[in-house]
Amino acid sequence: MNDWNEVVQLASTITFSFEEDTMIWRFSSNGVYSSQSLYKIINFRGVMPVHISAVWSLKIPPRVHFFLWLLAKNKLLTRDNLNIRQKLDDVRCLFCTEDESIHHLFFDCVVSRQIWYLISECLGVNIGANFISIGTMWLSNKRFLVHNVITSATLWGLWKLRNELCFQNTPWRDVRLILMRIAIMAQNWLFLCPKQEMEPMAQVLSKLMAIATRPRRISG
Prior knowledge:
mainly alpha, globular
């Protein structure tokens, strides 16, 4: 049932209409051209970043492919995007008091920053400052397969926990909870990975588990 609810939630971001086809500018949410929307896509020598399409080659479950594709296109139903459709009384992040957006939730929130700091420690590379730092690794999935699985599990885990806080009133404790979930998810996705990546993945998962089970520090 949880899987079905996740599919329904992701599918709800797709809008169908009986109106006649019209020309739209697909790089803005309202379909209207603006110089600001053009500026946002002028990178990688003037073309759309190819890592958006590279998501489909990652060794992760299909529903996570779709989730990352929506994230990359700023189509997830975070509170700022929901507020465009219907005015909300509260647009604050579920983890802090800042306004919720895709960039804030996954990269700029105090919780997500702490998680990426620990993920970087496990992977031995500084990652998670923004979407670009993750998406560029999708282009070399063979080289960064372990990194891509872990970062995909991190983004998916953050989104699932955010929804639990929002819809199920799950109490927030600390980052160790989500680190444990990330490790378990990545462990469950191992069957999708080539055999030669099993050992490197196991080493990262071992580090992640060790961090997730560290005793809480008591500050004096």
